[in-house]
Structures are given as C-alpha cells and as structure tokens.
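Entry:
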Amino acid sequence: MSAKTLQQIQREGLDVLVERLGPDDAIRFLQIYEPGRGDWTKERRAILENDPDTIIRNILERRKKTDLI
C-alpha cells in the first residue's frame, strides 16, 4: 500500500464527514473547525525549557502560597 497524498486524505475525510453527518452538518462542522495559530514547536521549547526539578519546585511553591499542601 502506497502513501496517500494530502489531497487524497482530504477528499476521503470530506467523504466520511458527509457520509456520517450528512451534507448540512458536515458543512457546519467545517465552519466551526479552526486549525489554530502560532508555532507550537517554538512555544513548546519555551514552555518546556525548564528541567523537571524546577517545574516541580515551582508547583510546590505555588501550592504553599495557596495553602494547598
């Protein structure tokens, strides 16, 4: 089995949506779908640049401030 092109996958996806939801609800679904914005790779690096010990320490400090421990 060869890899499908993005166009083939898109076509199959649309066919399945129409088949399962009907034309009207498939259109409604596509209207509410939003792919998102930004660059997750860059954001992830910024978010995850701290080591786990620092993250845990920060969580524990915040809990102490709010009396959750």
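The mean pLDDT is 87.
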